[in-house]
Amino acid sequence: MFIVKIIILVQNKISNNIKFFLRSTIMGKHNLQFEIEKSWWVKDINKKLWNIMKRLATKFEVTQYYIKPSQPGNPLIRYRKMNEKYYITIKKQAGKKRIEDEREISKDEYENNKKNIIGNIIEKTRYKIKDSQTLLTFEFDEYKLPKDYKGIIRLEIEFKSVKDMESFKLEENKLLCKIADSYETTSIGNQDIANVNR
Prior knowledge:
Layout: H1 2-26, E1 30-35, E2 37-45, H2 47-56, E3 58-67, E4 77-82, E5 85-92, E6 98-105, H3 107-112, E7 117-130, E8 137-145, E9 153-158, H4 162-167, H5 174-179, E10 180-186, H6 190-194
Antiparallel strand pairs: 1-6, 2-9, 2-10, 3-4, 3-7, 4-5, 5-6, 7-8, 8-9
């Protein structure tokens, strides 16, 4: 009886490993994490320092779009191309702390789902730079599409906790003060920019 139990446990472990392998191979590994972020519009930018920062930053060319979920009431699904990689992302819950479920997908899956697009396609260049003062990563998005947002710059900062986010003083940060004279806090997200509710 004891030997039978061991065999069953081994079989279950092998079965679970096979399932995980198949899911990871076919669907791609999921990156499930909490997202705690805050956003600002960048105003009165110092063009000279902005150009220097862009050269120092890690650069990503981003194109993304949204489709409706298969079931009403579920979150919208985002498809994104970032440089030469492709991702599908579902963000759950609202407020200061959200669950983000993301996995890498194939180019074919990304292209094939364009037929289900709602709203506008977003194109932007993302510049990521780590601040030595706070050790936070600043993400500056310079929009190309939709055309109403062309040239507009949006700053996003992700935090490890809600407490860290609430205690962060943007106007005290040396790097951000050099890049622009002012920032305007915004609750407008990329779904709003894509105008998915039209």
